[in-house]
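Request from the bench team (R.T.):
"We need a structural guess for the complex before ordering more pyridoxal-5'-phosphate. Sequence and SMILES attached. Just send the tokens back."

Command: build protein-pyridoxal-5'-phosphate structure.
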Amino acid sequence: MVAATDVATDLSAIRDLFSPEPGTAYLDAATYGLPPKPTFDAVQRAILRWRDGSADWVEEWDRVAERCRVLFADLIDSTPEEIALVPTVSAGVGLVAASLPAGANVIVPADEFTSVAFPMMVAEQWRGANVREVPLAQVADAVRPDTDLVAFSLVRSQSGEVAPLDDIMAAARANGARTLIDATHALPFVGVDGWLGEVDYLICHGYKHLLCPRGAGFMHVARRAQADVIPWFAGWRSGTPLYGRTYGGPLTLPETAAAFDLSLAWHSWAGALPSLELLAGWRRAGVLAPSIALATDLAGMLGRQPTGSQIISVPVADAERTASALAAAGVRCAARGGQVRLSCHVWNTREDIERAAAALADAGA
Ligand SMILES: Cc1ncc(COP(=O)(O)O)c(C=O)c1O
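Reply to R.T.: structure attached below.
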């Protein structure tokens, strides 16, 4: 394991790119990530050039997303041809759910985040799919030869718990089931290791741990799974050639996952690019592992098992009240599922987690 202090020199330069509220330990990237300075500047520039009408919208706000597509593909070792640009997780999951054949059998873990679970339940209510909710630890055992799809978060929203990926993927492989993974709380810290070649759909909203503006999200659709997804969201940006189809038929769509793109929320993408560029560099420099090390250290201070992710949660009697007490002590965290959730990122320091541990003790947690 990388010690939290090993790369402090690099991290201290990186921390200078962030401006959390003075006096606050911001341990809440799981709610929304903070923008690094280049991202803040890019969004501000986009808004200023929107105000005075001077922007070249194609180059500055729209085509910029094509570079984001490539960077996200690199991040997960996919290819740009397998990445769709989506505004939310629920939109991407909804597209997969809307494409399920009638009577499809779907497994989701119990207490799964609703942007994954609800679209499947909509398919159940309106399209005759069968959705089974199974405790996360039993998902792999629940997969059967008639299972069509297993949909789950790689890192759980409420707890930071990492799903038993090896077991689920092996069960899906053995039974011929497709897999849909929500990696919103996993990337860039926790990956799918060697499994990407067998993951059918991997979706990630960028506004948390990827430090993008909300509205910039990605969906890997494996080449072999692309024929199963119906491009219901096709619009002016989906035509081929890009920017070349504005009116009338015939329907010409890319023969890649770009066919599943949704038309873009421009300013989000202007901000997403610098964040993804920075993350690519930080990943190469190895400065992301210390965030998991910090969460592991914090778990130790609190006498809890580490999750293996950058998130840890503490069950408390009244999560909202405890989170408010922590906020009053200058520690920003969240209340989720009856727990206080704390999430580490590159701007966090040892002092931040010590302060959180002390504030939790003071709050009686
Ligand atoms: C696991 C998970 N996925 C996705 C999201 C965001 O959902 P959406 O992109 O549908 O707004 C969240 C937000 O908290 C989440 O916890």
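Two things stood out. Residues 295 and 308 are 8 Å apart (CA to CA). Confidence is low (pLDDT under 50) at residues 1-8.
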